[in-house]
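Internal tracking record. Fields below are filled automatically when a chain is submitted to the structure queue. Please do not edit lines marked as system-generated. If the sequence contains nonstandard residues, flag them in the REMARKS field before resubmitting.
Queue: standard
Priority: normal
Entity type: single polypeptide chain
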Amino acid sequence: MNSSNLLLKKTVCRFNFRKLILIAALLPLFSHATIADENFLQCKKNLAKRAQSAGFSPYITETVINNISPIKRVIALDKKQPEFTQTFEQYIKARVTAYHVRVGKEKLIQHKALFDKLEAEYDIPRQYLVSFWGLETVFGKHKGKMSVLNSLATLACDQRRSEFFTLELLNLFSLIESEQVSVEQLQGSWAGAMGHMQFMPTALLKYAVDGDNDGKVDIWQSEVDALTTAANYLNQIGWQSKERWGREVKLPENFAFDKVAFDKYYPLNYFQQLGVQQTNKQALPTYDIQAELYLPSGHKGPAFLLYPNFNVIMTWNLSKSYALSVGTLANKLVGAKGIEFLSGGKENVQPYSVAKMKSLQRQLNALGFETGEPDGIWGPKSRQAIRLFQLKHQLIADGYPNKEVFSTVKLVLSNTNSAAAHSHQAS
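SYSTEM-GENERATED OUTPUT FOLLOWS
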């Protein structure tokens, strides 16, 4: 890189860092002042005031914001994310395909020199970079054609995750104002993710790297910039180069589910003591590492031990099904098998709808098993509540909303209501 380009890059980075700190510092002031409003014009006025308070120029607060318009389809897509509407088996089979493996291996060969350099500089194994690339955009084939500005504004004006998307929008304004991106090139996914690797604005602002040394970062057209930025991102958020993401395991019959809480880490040797084995029935490794047991389809489906790098993957996308897809595809790119449990075409679990899950959450709350505000998502609070309910009623405590859980909850609630009615009549 010549000296003028280097100076430009350093200047841009300093601007980004100051602006990012400024926006982060302002967040407490706005913690109770969301911009969300069903009236989109009013929401834009709220956004303009917030951008002005954050120090943006009139170009942003007037020209850019004035040209923003809502996309109704974005809200519909936000409510129908596949992580919430498909079983794990359906989800992963649609994303870790023979095509992904074949083309991914071709990319490993095509970009060998680049991956050699990235591994040396950032300590991120190449198969993970290619796996993210394949899952995010099918190696650049599907980068998204929606207006990122309009998508983010639509989500920022919606109550569900207004604050998150407002911050992303403000950081996108920083990218525009520093001329790292132009309004014209801002096309991406319905959720505002951009380029080959689908970076959100905050990630791009913090971790962008000019990998091809041409004086700018172009994650849409430059595969080198996109992959280098991804390597820097994973390195900065804590990837442990000597560790894997986790592994598929085999649970013993009559596994002691009561001795393992979900979404909690234990020493690996604790699972050895509980009889957990590798899928080939060999003993688990003896090295010192923390692990979490995860059953994406309950006790009738595959079982995994997740290591700390799994949480790094989830920083990229907060979905365990997505993170398992990244890990599985990465394994297959370097010759390992996929998920052995699924190799025989097994699928023992029927999908549950968001509506059914919301109903279950409400019922569990009524019975004193706290799931939080019902949202139809099988998250940590729901897993814990289901597990506690299963333990109390002598069910297999896998934390999964299976048929036995739905029917038993219904029966218990019915009996509880009948008992309450009888008591009321007696009094």
